[in-house]
Design brief:
Number of helices: 11
Largest sheet: 9 strands, mixed
Number of domains: 2
GO molecular function, one term: serine-type endopeptidase inhibitor activity
Organism: Diceros bicornis minor (South-central black rhinoceros)
Strand content: 25-35%
Keywords: Glycoprotein, Secreted, Signal
Shape: globular
Protein name: Serpin domain-containing protein
Distance between the termini: 34 Å
Family: Belongs to the serpin family.
Mean pLDDT: 79
Structural class: alpha+beta
């Protein structure tokens, strides 16, 4: 699948790795593509749609965040829902003056988008991802420290683009906690009982967002002296037969194995490809609501996942989506119930967002100095046999014998297929969650 690698190079040119000076133009001495006589590759029509282009930008932020987080946890599972982090940062940028706004926008790759109304497009993106047929409910709220005076010029665009109004804490920890948890329960129809066990002390800004997708499966949350929760359970289009689930070996490395429940489908229709450059087998499974999950399985259990991780961009994943071929396979997937709670403060600081924690300018929100002091990310993931129970027509597919067993460390990407938005990403080294 050499075409995948060719588009990866194109994606690198479109990203922050492109040859640019600080002003955003070509570096001095670099050739002007219009004068070299070399044909310039035209942008994929998919990315010409404003919502899709924005989705690609914040997804590239998500892949960056994942890479930093993974490098900090080389021997542990990693779970992230980058969309929740990106949405919180994007909403916060409404209250930032130019210097701080530019810092946030560069991290979100907005500086590479020729779009004068990013926040209006973000509203359209959220509307697409939460369309009724996708069974995803999303809401957000910004909570400020007690007695803070908020400018109306910040409130209006926040409500318009992100559908939320800010709330000022009362200063009564028990009452404030009850208020936040009641709101979370209402937004998620009780699927998330509470947002947190206590209101963090010395709050400047608390970002609270929730999303609920009908069913059971994926969930995540973000606390950024603030807090964002995303509940995105995915249902397989085709339900796994629980009678075929059995205990099988999962290879942690060449010498160590653990026994875990593995779901199985001996006649699964998957979209498949082999990337010889990354030395991995790629498979895509559809989820309900126009979502899909892509697995990256190394050829050998001893293979380092870093090369695969470094290749992940919105453009590369989009190309994979076009290139994979439908095949029938013997498929096994571990049942998972994992969770992660911890800070991603250092990860964001590594992504050139340090100034948000030092001396940001949020004077569009209030005249009082504000800054981020901590960013926590809470994520839960569960896969089981549940599915829509449908048996879609397999359509044309290759019939050569193929086994695809996720019985060793792998990476997965869960995305919205309509917009390409990255919803969830993970590195599974041990499905037991240890």
């Amino acid at each position: 699948m050499q075409a995948l690698m060719l588009l990866l190079w194109t994606g690198a040119l479109l990203g922050h790795g492109s040859c640019q000076n600080d002003a955003g133009g070509p570096e001095e001495g670099s050739p002007d593509p219009d004068t070299t006589g070399v044909p310039v590759e035209e942008e994929d029509p998919f990315f010409k749609v404003p919502v899709n282009k924005l989705a690609a930008a914040i997804s590239n932020f998500g892949y960056d965040l994942y890479r930093v987080r993974s490098s900090m946890s080389p021997t542990a599972n990693v779970l992230l829902s980058p969309l929740s982090v990106a949405t919180a940062l994007s909403a916060l940028s409404l209250g930032a003056e130019q210097r701080t706004e530019s810092t946030i926008h560069r991290a979100l790759y907005y500086d590479l988008i020729n779009n004068p109304d990013i926040h209006s497009t973000y509203k359209d993106l959220l509307a697409s991802v939460t369309a009724p047929e996708k069974n995803l409910k999303s809401a957000s709220r910004i909570i400020f420290e007690k007695k803070l005076r908020i400018k109306s010029s910040f409130v209006a665009p926040l409500e318009k683009s992100y559908g939320s109004r800010p709330k000022i804490l009362t200063g009564n920890p028990r009452a404030d906690l009850q208020e936040l948890n009641n709101w979370v329960q209402a937004q998620t129809k009780g699927k998330i009982a509470r947002s947190t066990r206590e209101v963090p002390s010395e709050i400047s800004i608390l970002l609270l967002g929730v999303a609920y997708f009908k069913g059971a499966g994926f969930s995540t949350s973000l606390l950024a002296k603030g807090h964002s929760i995303c509940f995105i359970p995915g249902q397989w289009v085709t339900k796994f037969d629980s009678r075929k689930t059995s205990l099988k070996d999962f290879y942690l490395d060449e010498e160590r194995t653990v026994t875990v429940p593995m779901m199985s489908d001996p006649k699964a229709i998957i979209r498949y490809g082999l990337d010889s450059d990354l030395n991995c087998k790629i498979a895509q499974l559809p989820l309900t609501g126009s979502m899909s999950i892509i697995f990256f399985l190394p050829q050998t259990v001893t293979q380092n996942l870093t090369m695969i991780e470094e290749s992940l961009t919105s453009e590369f994943i989009h190309d994979i989506d076009r290139e994979l071929k439908s095949v029938q396979a013997v498929l096994t997937i571990p049942k998972l119930k994992l969770s992660y709670e911890g800070e991603v403060t250092k990860s964001l600081q590594e992504m050139k967002l340090q100034s948000l924690f030092d001396s940001p300018d949020f004077s569009k929100i209030t005249g009082k100095p504000l800054k981020l002091t901590q960013v926590e990310h809470r994520t839960g993931l569960e896969w089981n046999e549940d599915g829509a129970g449908t048996n879609p027509s397999p359509g044309p597919h290759l019939t050569f014998p193929l086994d695809y067993h996720l019985n060793q460390p792998f990476i997965f990407v869960l995305r919205d297929t309509d917009t390409g938005a990255l919803l969830f990403i993970g590195k599974i080294l041990d499905p037991r969650g240890t």
